[in-house]
Amino acid sequence: DHVAHDDAARHPVLDDEVEHLGAGVQRDRAQRHLVHHLLVRAEQRLKEEKFTEPEFDNARYFYNEVLTLEPQNTEALEGLERIRELQLTKLLKLGSERFEQQRLTRPLRDNAYFYYQQALLLDPENIVAKEGLERITVEYIALAQDAFAKHEYGNGLNFVNQGLEVDPTNAALLELKNRYRAQSNAIQRFFNKVFN
After folding, report:
1. How far apart are CA 57 and CA 59, in angstroms?
2. What is the spatial distance between Cα 171 and Cα 16, in angstroms, rounded to a whole number?
3. What CA–CA distances, in Å, run from 119 to 50, 100, 110?
4. What is the pLDDT of residues 135-189, one digit of tens each?
5. Whole-prediction pTM value?
6. List of residues 6+ apart from 102 with CB closer than 8 A
């Protein structure tokens, strides 16, 4: 008993370290509990398809919170990748649906072009999104040619301009624009001659 008392009296630093280690263990336990709680919340939001909305209550938010505590947390990193893949799949599906509905570039923020562009923000090399944009351009070329064949030059030029919003350097659209702008100008000159 006397020896133990002398031992403690000789090592006050040891007492401080033991106390500090106990606090460290408590902190580690609390952090592990918090990480577990954040991962559970992230998974719940993932199942609810709340990938990035609402702010501060979505899967991405909770996974990122985990990564602030544990930067190499595998579950959180894999969760973020799953979100990206699920978002990409959803965007490509919406792009395809809007294309089939002929909602190529309108209405704003709910059209094939918008969804394919959003997909390319997540995956700049995504082949399906790039092909989707090409399909939109080809569709506008066909719509413009059909309108021009029916002598609906205003509609034809609208389709050309909408196609050029998707692909500003498309040679076929630029050629159609130049040809039918000239045609439209010739018709305007004719009417000016007749009625002036």
Report:
1. 7
2. 77
3. 17, 18, 13
4. 999 999 999 999 999 999 989 999 999 999 999 999 999 999 998 877 766 666 6
5. 0.76
6. 139
